[in-house]
Write a structure and sequence with these properties.
8 helices, 2 domains, BirA Bifunctional Protein, domain 2, five-stranded antiparallel beta sheet, alpha+beta
């Protein structure tokens, strides 16, 4: 069951690349359209400079995607990496990227960091909700081709979803509240304490805006106002978190 999620990032990619390629976490690392003997982040910057793109502070410098696999599928790191390479080759044929497969958790998962600027024509990557849904579809198609389980991400959550959110999901997009639910659910599954939980959210640009004895609020990276956990559903209230 592949879970594919990602976000655009405005910071320089050096720290993110260092994180995913950390030899303590990464069992396999490969790159596309990059020189493995040179600094990856520097090469991203050189491509952007060549086309005079991503120069502003608030420009997206790269995209960070995570491709996770269900432990029940018993996928090997090599196979997970191969499937992720196939996905990236189809999704980002004109962009430099690095893929790192991590085995430091109880489930195999892969990271993809993609240069936001095409090395072919300088065009910037941009993903609408429908574009993002197509990437998830592609992940499912590749998984099904090799006999692995798929994830029906369009199926509405059992938690509270308003009618306007449901329409976005049914159109093939992913609502921002559902994105929060996905990231929070993953963090709850993987983290053992509040510090780990908050750091995991931060990887996706999600921050905890308020955290009291009774309530907790989250801020989506593309929103200006935070939302309380109980507005996302009963599974996201303060009582759901281990401290």
């Amino acid at each position: 069951m592949p879970l594919f999620k990602g976000c655009g990032c405005k910071a320089k990619p050096a720290k993110a690349i260092d994180y995913i390629t950390d030899e303590k976490k990464a069992a396999i690392v490969t790159s596309y359209a990059l020189d493995d003997n040179r600094d990856y982040a520097r090469q991203f910057a050189e491509t952007a400079q060549l086309f005079h793109k991503a120069e502003r502070y608030d420009s997206r410098k790269y995209y960070h995607f995570k491709h996770s696999f269900d432990p029940k599928d018993n996928i090997t790191p090599e196979e997970a990496h191969r499937l992720t390479e196939e996905l990236a080759q189809q999704a980002f044929p004109d962009n430099e990227y690095i893929i790192a497969t991590h085995t430091d958790k109880h489930h195999v998962h892969c990271h993809i960091i993609v240069n936001s600027v095409s090395f072919v024509n300088g065009k910037m990557l941009h993903y609408s909700n429908s574009d993002y849904a197509k990437l998830k579809d592609l992940s499912n198609e590749i998984a099904a081709k090799y006999g692995y389980s798929t994830l029906d991400f369009r199926k509405p959550s059992a938690d509270r979803i308003k009618s306007e959110e449901r329409r976005v999901v049914l159109k093939g997009g992913t609502s921002w509240k559902e994105e929060l639910r996905e990231v929070i659910a993953e963090a709850l599954k993987l983290c053992n304490n509040m510090d780990e939980f908050e750091k995991h959210l931060n990887k996706y640009g999600v921050t905890i805006a308020r955290n009291t004895a009774k309530t907790i609020s989250f801020l989506h990276p593309n929103k200006k106002k935070p939302i309380r956990g109980n507005k996302l559903g009963k599974a996201y209230t303060k009582h759901s978190y281990r401290t």
